[in-house]
Design goal:
This protein is of the alpha/beta class and 204 residues long. 42% of the residues lie in helices and 13% in strands.
Length: 204
């Protein structure tokens, strides 16, 4: 059905949707491909497929999307992590190679926390701070940190406006950072109308 309706990555998306409906990873689904499935799973797959054909992104349907090899929780409160953003994690890791222990990293406009949490996952000695304007988005980042790094993750969360001098003074007047990284929203209001329809599901 996805293929007939022009979904570009139909084969991969179909596997992801079926695996999620069955409560499995894609690898587990492929391993168990010949096992009988239930009517409930079949109905869930049909529901997921209908949602996808209406334009809803797979990441929001499944509630998860892989970033830097990590399964990030994703909700409509945050932008979906893009693969090209992984270069920022690589850049931070390269900068910190051979650098002092306990390097301080600030991820501005963190959204799901994908960049900062991936850095913290790769460099457990780093002190990572996530800053986000929207509390609902920060809740997603907290969930990702807890799930991917454990309860004692050491990540600091700050709900504040990155462009506000008042917020900066309140939260960072006596702090300094070795690395500041950010991939903030950058699409202008005029450009919004020309984007692919599925992008309308992401927060403005």
């Amino acid at each position: 059905m996805l293929r007939q309706n022009g979904v570009e990555g139909y084969a991969l998306e179909a596997r992801i949707l079926v695996a999620c409906a069955a409560g499995k990873t894609v690898q587990q689904l492929l391993r168990d491909i010949n096992l009988y499935t239930t009517e409930q799973v079949e109905n869930t797959v049909l529901d997921y497929t209908a949602r996808r054909l209406r334009g809803e992104p797979v990441a929001y349907i499944t509630g998860s999307w892989e970033f830097y090899g990590l399964p990030m929780t994703v909700t409509p409160d945050v932008l979906i992590p893009r693969m090209d953003t992984e270069v920022l994690v690589d850049a931070v890791k390269e900068f910190l190679t051979g650098y002092k222990m306990d390097a301080r990293v600030l991820d501005l406009c963190c959204g799901s926390g994908c960049i900062g949490i991936s850095v913290a996952h790769a460099r457990r000695d780093a002190a990572v701070t996530l800053l986000e304007l929207y509390p609902d988005a920060m809740d997603v980042a907290r969930r990702n940190a807890r799930h991917l790094l454990g309860d004692e993750h050491g990540v600091n969360f700050v709900v504040a406006d990155a462009a506000s001098e008042t917020d900066a003074e309140e939260h960072f007047a006596h702090n300094s950072f070795d690395v500041i990284v950010s991939n903030p929203p950058y699409v202008t209001a005029d450009e919004m109308g020309s984007l692919a329809p599925e992008l309308s599901y992401e927060p403005r």
